[in-house]
Amino acid sequence: MTIEELRKYHPNATEETWHQHPNGGGWVENTAHVDETARVFGNARVFGDARVYGDAWVFGNAWVYGDAQVYGNAQVYGNAWVYGDAWVYGDAQVHGNAQVHGNAQVHGNAQVYGNAQVYGNAQVYGDAWVYGDAWVYGDAQVYGNAQVHGNAQVYGNAWDESPLYIQGTRHPLSPYKRGWIRIGCMAHTISWWLEHYEGAGRAENYTPVQVAEYKLYIDLFAARYGTDAKEEAES
Fold it and tell me: Is residue 191 part of a domain?
């Protein structure tokens, strides 16, 4: 990438305020720091007050910026963005169109990819994968061999196994946090859904067959996660 091409995205960039990293040739703003042992190459760029160090790689069209840190043997590539105060480290990989931001951390052997987002104070680590169009945010922790995928949105609690995710005939169902289900854009406790599923289904123009279908799914969530969560506990 030439300085002229860089200016398409960063109009104020000059050869005095940016430089090409000696280990790969990717562009680095002078306010950022990249160790000589790290690699930045392709059309990747590191800017703002971001730091890339150790043996980390940033490549493809990836961006690392803000106060983000990427280190260890971590890799950020594809069209991925890591920004804000996020950390990606260990042997973690963030790729595809994924975004990690806020105060989120991705580490260990974890992978975040596809169109997935991890943000807030969330952590993804161990051998966990977050992918597809999934969101992990709030104070959620996904770890071990857990996988969050599809259109799932996980807001809180720790998950050391893959959260239940069902793509029904109308809307997907996923655990918003322990004891809660998100169906489409509505999130309530499992006990709330058990009481109100018929009215909620009619409000969304579900057919009677679809209402019965979703009752089976809600029963499955109840069997797996219980019904102890309180509706007023949502924050």
Answer: yes
pLDDT at site 96: 96
- What total of structural domains would you count in the chain? 1
Q: DSSP strand E in 3-114: where?
A: 18-20, 27-29, 33-34, 39-40, 45-46, 51-52, 57-58, 63-64, 69-70, 75-76, 81-82, 87-88, 93-94, 99-100, 105-106, 111-112
Give the mean pLDDT of 121-146. 90
Q: Is residue 2 part of a domain?
A: no
Q: Which residue has the tokens 């590539």?
A: 77
Domain containing residue 219:
166-233
pLDDT in tens, 172-225: 888 877 788 889 888 899 999 999 999 999 999 999 999 999 999 999 989 888
